[in-house]
């Protein structure tokens, strides 16, 4: 096969995708598997890990699943060591695990704010810190942080999430700055509005069968005039995980159907 196309291959690579039992992480991991990578994922309990293993098996993928709360540094360090023992040193890390709490700021408890920051920002720091030494040892590494429209824009009720995803954009740039010389490329993917369980409340049909107002709002704000699917993120993720992007570093690749470029359709 043409050597250029081979640059997109993930053959022989070990990829850890956090929170990848379903949703965006699952879609990215299945694409990585198709590109040749060995898939490792975690979730917060064995039931979800088992469900994830079954879902991967249904696609013919023999994934490796681990129970690990990404906010717990001791557990993350132990899990990365166990992965190294049982599977090998992680070449590709996707910091995908994330939560959102949609609460007006004045009604949000500080503990709720901290919880979102913990999962969406502290955890990518913790997991990256655990994986980078192995990447340095191997002489290469890829880190992909799943950012958001909220890495660039705010909106009502998502103060904690926007603060975390804005911080994740800068953590991405800082890992690039600090470890680029070790041949580690750290980039972000900024999905637009994607149809997953996380956004299901924003797409629920109204009692009269009409669209949720937020659903209509997003369709008016998206030039593609549709919500994204997790599969829309697969090509960009394989690109950023592969040798095809070895000179791309500190970049946030927005996969948003054009939202960030568009003022929105006139009502
Ligand atoms: P999702 O359907 O809610 O899935 C999130 C995943 O993260 C779940 O598997 C969840 O497991 C896991 N997770 C949560 N907290 C965890 C923890 N402490 N430790 C380990 N795993 C944990 O979300 P999604 O829509 O696929 O989003 C995935 C990522 O994309 C998130 O970072 C999200 O912020 C980001 N994103 C989503 C959209 C979108 O429109 N959907 C757009 C931009 C960015 P549990 O089920 O056990 O909680
Ligand atoms: C929200 C949505 C968004 C998406 C995503 C957009 O409540 O506005 O959940 O935050 O999840 O982050 O890129």
Topology:
Layout (H helix, E strand, L loop, with lengths): L2 H4 L7 E5 L4 H12 L3 E6 L2 H13 L5 E4 L5 H14 L5 E4 L14 H29 L2 E6 L12 H21 L4 E8 L8 H4 L9 H9 L12 H8 L10 E4 L12
Helix pairs in contact: 2-9, 4-5, 5-6
D-gluconic acid binds next to loops.
SSE run: HEHEHEHEHEHEHHHE
Strand content: 5-15%
Largest sheet: 7 strands, parallel
Mean pLDDT comes to: 97
- Ligand roster: NADP nicotinamide-adenine-dinucleotide phosphate, D-gluconic acid
Q: State the total count of DSSP E strands.
A: 7
Q: Measured on Cα atoms, how large is the radius of gyration?
A: 18 Å
**What coarse outline follows from CA principal-axis ratios?**
globular
Structural classification: alpha/beta
Q: What is the first-to-last residue Cα distance?
A: 50 Å
Helix content: 40-55%
Count the DSSP helices.
9
Low-confidence stretches: none
| Widest beta sheet: strand line-up | 3-2-1-4-5-6-7
